[in-house]
Amino acid sequence: MQKEAGIFHGFERFDEFVMRNIGVEIFAESILIKYPGTVPNLPISNHLSIPEILSISLEQSENGNQLSQGYCKRKKQWNSINTTRNIFRSEQWARIFERIGDEYSLFLLEHTCIIQKIGENMVLLCGDINSIPEKRKEQRYVQREQLFRGRPSSLHISVDEALQAIMNDVEISRDNSSILAEKIKKMVRKYQELPLKAIFKSFIIEKPFDSASQHADDDGKRSSKTNSGASIIEDQINPQTIADFLFLISKKFLRPILSLKSFKTLKGKLVLLLKRNAFETLNSEDLSNRFKMSNFKFFNHCKNLSNSTRIQVLKNLMLFLFNSVFLKIVGYFFYSTTTSSTKLKIYYFTRISWNGRTDKFIREYLKEFECCEKTGNFATLRCIPKEDGFRIITNCSRLTSYGTKNHLKQTKQSTKSKLSIEKLSSRYRDLGEILKDESTASTSKCRKRIAHRIVPNSQAFPRFNSNSINSQISSIVPIIRKIASDANGFSLLCHFDVGKRLFPFLKFRSNRMILVKVDLSKCFDNIPHPSLMSFISNMLRKDEYYFREFGVIRENKLGNKVEIKYLKHSPDVLYPMNMVEAQPEGLNYLRQDGMCILKENRTKVISKTDVLKRSLVLLKAPPFFIKIDTTWAPGEYPRAVRFRPYCAPYTFQS
Predict the structure, then answer these.
(1) Are strands 624-627 and 514-516 parallel, antiparallel or unpaired?
(2) Which of 31, 71, 178, 595 is the most buried (most CB within 10 A)?
(3) How far apart are CA 334 and CA 346, in angstroms?
(4) Is-contact 624 510, C-beta < 8 A?
(5) Residue among 25, 28, 108 nearest 67 (CA)
(6) Nearest to 166 by CA among 155, 179, 154
(7) Alpha-carbon distance 115 to 132, whole Å?
(8) Contact 255, 278 (CB under 8 A)
(9) What span, in angstroms and rounded, lies between the C-alpha atoms of 594 and 46?
(10) Which InterPro entries match (predicted)?
(11) For residue 65, what is the DSSP state?
(12) Distance separating alpha carbons of residues 311 and 285, to the nearest angstrom
């Protein structure tokens, strides 16, 4: 029953419980019991029969007790469809009631939770069914997502946590279990005695942020470095160095259970843990292979232990070490992230270096903004490394309030009480009345287009209870988006406009033009078009550029959907494109419907000025566009403009 006791948290064997609390030795291997309290001292006497014990316990037990479910009292007799009464009348329970006495029998039936294994099923005999937790899901993989979470509050591990994780779902004898438990306790005790911070400072030579961010020039003066991508990537820690750091720690507390050859295998697993990409992980099979049981000192002095049991214990041990020890150490001392250009490779930085650089960058970034209104809610900023610094992102769907946790709960409750459904719905009605009462031409057009979006009050706030900063305006977002789009004209284009505005315009044009998608540094929505055209014209000084992929906007065969077809090429092969002729050299692609995309004899020759005037004005986009991943003129790399792929192909983004 060791396996079942591990599945049902808080339960123990019935015979061990009776021996420890009552002092009576019985044999009940297939019975589990759960009672978190203290058992009182009661006399042991036998004056009641089993039906009398069951009848008294039925009258005195609580409503949630499984023993009283399905019973009804008719006159002086209890009648029921509950089958537990027949189980308690068995010979095994008759001997148990006789050994522990009437008082203890009534106490156990009324106040404890008892489960018995009958055949292949676990039957609840007495107690509350809600007190039994659900079966824990078996974790058979390394949780590498811990690398991208916040810093762990503590590196402490408890003996109970280790025993529960390693001995979970394992059938093992009592003698072998005690031997393994003693080795686990010794391992945890050695780990708790380690000075992890001192080991980290002595092993990882870390430069202070001031010395890393400043350097001396030829005149001896101190000048500040720019937050370039090169300087940021230079601060990264090699995964091999972190693996050596974890291996050094493992040798100090895993000596009682691993041999020299096992340590070499463990080091290879640590390197795999840190060098795999952001979406890969290790399962229990990857962790347990290449370990030889003969070199595994953890099972020394264990007798009659099958090979399958050894493998199961080994898998549980390695999963516990990687999830609860190694990943916590990495998250505590290092910051793990991906970059804006490489989504798969993980970069590791020390916490001091990362926090110093990001704090300085955020302070300089926030100087460009002005405080308009103070609020008690805020969203945490996150920095992602890129080529010339950081990209700042935030998740506005996560609501956070200032103060402690109690203050956070009070703030949420007060916010919900103040901003009630009635008040919000009244605001929504006021907005609808304003839209209906306005008589201006622009608002009249807007009212006609968004009249179908005004819904009853019961449907006005479907996301009111969601934990979002934008939940209070979620129902009127389509209205606000439409008003903002009409106010800004053609400066704002989203993916909805591809089918609504862009494709109908391109559908009836015969000439072919090229739209080059550009990513400008610190570029916002409302851009003066003359300044933008002048900037791009000065940037495109060369006639020949290179691209790696392009796409075409087209309708599907039914004509009810607009799709973008991307044609990608090998990243090692670059195709030249002549801006004067607007024609890639050496390409001859055909659409699926048979129409030619790019062909030497059919591509219309347009000038560079025509490209700037007609292609980069957003509404006058071509029927196909060039999606440039890496673009440069021969012998020159454009520093002011970077070309990046985006999902929304017609927006200038920062």
Answers:
(1) parallel
(2) 31
(3) 12
(4) no
(5) 108
(6) 179
(7) 10
(8) no
(9) 95
(10) Telomerase_RBD, Telomerase_RT
(11) B
(12) 10
Which tokens go with 573? 């092969």
pLDDT for 334 equals 94
Written in H, E and C, the secondary structure of 437-499 is HCCCHHHHHHHHHHHHHCCCHHHCCCCCCCCCHHHHHHHHHHHHHHHHHHHHHHHCCCCHHHH
Backbone phi, psi, residue 4, to 5° = -65, -35
Which residues neighbour 287 within 8 Å (Cβ) at sequence distance 6 or greater? 142, 269, 315, 318, 319, 322
Q: What is the DSSP letter of 153?
A: S
CA atoms within 13 A on the CB side of 36: 4
Q: Which two tokens stand for residue 396?
A: 């506005």
Question: For position 7, what pLDDT does the model report?
Answer: 56
Give the tens place of pLDDT for each residue, 113-170. Answer: 888 888 777 788 888 777 665 555 566 889 998 898 888 988 999 998 898 888 877 7
Q: Looking at the predicted structure, is the pLDDT value of residue 396 above 80?
A: no
Q: How remote is the C-alpha of 85 from its chain's centroid?
A: 49
Name 33's Cβ contacts closer than 8 Å, sequence gap at least 6: 11, 12, 13, 14, 17, 108, 112, 113, 114, 115
Class of domain 144-209+226-337: mainly alpha
Q: Report, as an integer, the average pLDDT of 378-406.
A: 67
115 near 124, Cβ under 8 Å? yes
Q: What's the gap between Cα 86 and its chain centre? A: 50
Tokens of 196: 């992890």
What letter would DSSP give residue 639? S
Q: Whole-angstrom Cα distance, residue 634 to residue 647?
A: 28
Distance CA 447, CA 439 (A): 10
Tell me, what's the pLDDT at 73? 47
Q: Give SS3 for 148.
A: helix
Neighbouring-strand partners of residue 335: 349
Nearest of 25, 53, 74 to residue 126 by alpha carbon: 53
d(CA 511, CA 652): 24
pLDDT number for residue 263: 92
Residue with tokens 């079966």: 135
| Nearest-angstrom CA–CA distance, 5 and 475 | 51
State the amino acid at position 273 in one-letter form: L
- Rounded Cα distance between 255 and 16, Å, is 33
CA atoms within 13 A on the CB side of 291: 29
Nearest Cα to 151, choosing from 362, 397, 352?
Answer: 352
**Lowest model confidence (mean pLDDT) among 37-41, 387-391, 606-610:** 606-610
**What one-character-per-residue DSSP string does 168-192 give?**
TT----HHHHHHHHHHHHHHHHHHH
DSSP assignment of 256-321 equals: TT--HHHHHHHHHHHHHHHHS-TT---BHHHHHTT--GGG-GGGTT--S--HHHHHHHHHHHHHHH
Cβ within 8 Å of residue 500, ≥6 positions away = none
Domain-wise residue ranges, the chain? 2-131, 144-209+226-337, 349-369+376-401, 411-488, 493-642
Tell whether the torsion through CA atoms of 521, 524, 525 and 531 is positive or negative.
Answer: negative
Tell me the C-alpha distance between 547 and 578, whole Å: 11
Alpha helices in 322-404 (DSSP H): 327-333, 351-366
Residue 185 token pair: 């306790």
